[in-house]
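User: Please run a holo structure prediction.
Assistant: Happy to. Please share the sequence and the ligand.
User: Here you go; the ligand is zinc ion.
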Amino acid sequence: MPFPIKTCVICHEEFELRPDKPGFANRCPSCSEPESTEPETRRPTDYAERRAEHEVNAARRRAIRDLLYRKDS
Ligand SMILES: [Zn+2]
């Protein structure tokens, strides 16, 4: 039984909206974590690096998905 697929408002990556997912319903787990669970303990540099890495991964996944879709059509 698949969960509904939502698009993150922060990084625009698609994610499964699980009933027990913490944070906002319109943010993926990676974008929900830093602000909702650890607002003070995480250093700004760590947060920026995590975000940059996250966005690179999301872009890479989008590119791969576009290739797969293009092959089907
Ligand atoms: Zn996100």
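The helical segments are 29-36, 44-72.
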